[in-house]
């Protein structure tokens, strides 16, 4: 996996201060990429940068503030990136929240749909000019096994008519996968070299499995280590999607083990719901309307 050098390339990873994002950042740094850690908590980002520097002293790593639950923050981040960088090879839409109590984003969206999907949708759209300016750039969006059996409830996107954490998490992860698929279709329709694809980490031991702000009891951590794969393995589908030379765009990459829960990266088939072009188009249009971000595919 690590023979594909990233020297001279620039990568943005959302939620890169821990878990899958941090492990992905470590691999990119080892491969010579200039890595931007896009994080909500700057102090945690600085700690992650230090951890990467200890492994890869020559790495060029930068911490930048990004709160995906706040569209003003997304816009400010994108403007900052575009003003300072003249290319963007990799955008890794990695950050996510999982099954929180019912809450809303700064802009009034249900927290999981707003952060996991809309925040990344807006970020990608705002950074698209830089991505299109960079030959063979890639957008990798993280989905989840939870996208299976999920659906997009357009009549209750904000959760005001009832909320179940896991149901809304699945909806947000289906939205991630539909977005990645639809984005690749539109890039190809415009004859562009930028690729969009999706991946998922299987079931990996990350901070998503904390209980609120508390660490999990030791007995549960032991069970997790037995049944879940470490974040280093969970990050492999992301690294594969970002670097494998055989990628054509539109693929969905996940672990090759039983139930796709753990293992090494392989091409996977998403749930058939992802292939519903009508729903994908509606989701795109709703996302543009809610986020106020439209995609311009002209270079």
What does this structure look like?
The protein is of the alpha/beta class and 299 residues long. It has one domain (10-290): NAD(P)-binding Rossmann-like Domain (Rossmann fold), CATH 3.40.50. The protein contains nine helices and ten strands. An eight-stranded mixed β-sheet has the order 3-2-1-4-5-6-9-10, with helices on both faces. A two-stranded parallel ribbon has the order 7-8. α6 (218-227) links the parallel β7 (204-205) and β8. α3 (71-84) runs parallel beside α4 (111-133) and α4 packs across α9. The model is unreliable at 208-217 (pLDDT under 50). This is Oxidoreductase. Keywords: Oxidoreductase. InterPro entries: NAD(P)-bd_dom_sf, SDR_fam.
Give short descriptive properties of this protein.
299 residues, eight-stranded mixed sheet, alpha/beta, single chain, two-stranded parallel sheet
Number of continuous helical runs: 9
Report the strand count. 10
Structural class: alpha/beta
Low-pLDDT segments, ≥5 res: 208-217
What fraction, in percent, of the residue positions are helical? 40-55%
Terminus-to-terminus distance: 31 Å
CATH superfamily: NAD(P)-binding Rossmann-like Domain
Indicate the proportion of strand residues. Answer: 5-15%
Produce a short descriptive summary.
It comes from Metaplanococcus flavidus. This protein is of the alpha/beta class. The chain contains 9 helices and 10 strands.
List the helices and strands and how they pair.
Layout: E1 10-14, H1 19-30, E2 34-39, H2 42-55, E3 60-65, H3 71-84, E4 90-93, H4 111-133, E5 138-142, H5 165-189, E6 195-199, E7 204-205, H6 218-227, E8 229-230, H7 231-234, H8 236-243, E9 252-255, E10 265-267, H9 277-291
Parallel strand pairs: 1-2, 1-4, 2-3, 4-5, 5-6, 6-9, 7-8
Antiparallel strand pairs: 9-10
Helix pairs in contact: 3-4, 4-5, 4-9, 5-9
